[in-house]
Amino acid sequence: MTFTDQASGTLPHSTATPAGPAAPAALSGLAVADAPAQARFGGPLTSPGGRRSAIDTRTSEPLLDVTIPVFNEERDLEACLRRLHAYLLGSFPHSFRITVADNASTDGTLKTAERVARELREVNVVHMAEKGRGNALRKVWLASPSPVLAYMDVDLSTDLAALGPLLAPLISGHSDLAIGTRLTRNSRVVRGPKREFISRSYNFLLQSFMGAHFSDAQCGFKAIRADVARQLLPHTLDNAWFFDTELLVLAEKCGLRVHEVPVDWTDDPDSSVDIVQTAIADLRGMARLSRDLVSGRIPVPELRAALARGPLPASSRAQEQSPGGSLFGQLVRFGSIGVASTLAYLVIFLLCRGIMDPQLANFLALLTTAVANTAANRRFTFGIQGSSQAARHHFEGLLVFGIGLALTSGALAVVHNASGGAPDRWLELVTVTAANLAATAVKFLLFRLVVFRHRPATAVPGRTGTPAVPATTTGTAPAPAATDASFPAQKRPSK
Question: Which residues contact residue 459 at a Cβ distance below 8 angstroms, ignoring those fewer than 6 apart?
């Protein structure tokens, strides 16, 4: 049992662990995929065969660290800790720690946690001066010496029987992160229609606009390997509820595997979470994370070079070759970008039309929006990151722009000839809008089939573990069963 300095909220032990050294706070200036860069970053986490190493269960530190973030949970905390402790003691065959992360509680939560920790040696208490689940998890996980990190909500809404299947693929090296999901056919969930609708809508937005493949970003039942966490956590910013989404999206962008476990979940009717405000904050987080990915604040290519798994044996199949995901997701993202581009085009066209010929106004409006449109579709619709082949993509995008220019210019010429050379301004606007929509449909086909079509990369001698195609899968590959074979028996030290 250990306690923390309640003023600083830092753990009293070192962050160095058997799983590897701590990660640096930033990766700016890191060269892509070269050995010196990977050494500075902490080394590639994959073996030469592109596989993640299994975790040594004989570690002297607790193998598992389960964090319980709490804020004013005096009433429920003790029952939660005793129930979780009894379950782990009886069902988890390795050493463990339960860390209570008190987020600036103003009631008796901290005293309750400390009292239980004095009785149960596996319980640890950390006091944070600031509120926020993301802040608590980031600090506790970066300081923990355990090779497997997990967290769950204090109400224990998720049936603990799912904990074994959650942890087994991380220990074996099969997966990098594991999440509970309430949104699959095999999940059994008891909750109101309002929460169900908001949750499904939010995850649909993540899948459609950010290309996410996981089904449930918000379930408070997750685990991550510590070696992966140390690489990703310094690049997360959110201190509240969006932290989960930010971590999962970043993991998928870096080519990591997220394993999903269907859970049995019962809604807590006394939950203090404001789901509407949380949903709004999550939408703002999506916008901020999108900006961070586009601006390069998060060095995804460098992270991918150090973290990504090797290519799949079936990587020649078309499904694995499509970096942008499903056709439906591509259509949704392309349509959203197209709406924004069309609105920008109309504004520029109207501004230019007042001072110049309609054909010239059309040319300038199309050219101005074409470059931004190509860049946005390259990044969001088709999931291509980094500067590799960017010049070729933009050149081919300008060729596609030429087709759009021909369609809109031809439509303008027809309407001017039909009206005797002086059409109504609104007729011009409707004409170029219709032509632009037709050009958009042609553009999507050309982008998908020609410009951003996946081209298998040529293998580079001596470079392994860096896939040409993201190897991220979510819940599609079989995980090790949560049996005693998955968790080799380990004798716990006697009290």
Answer: none
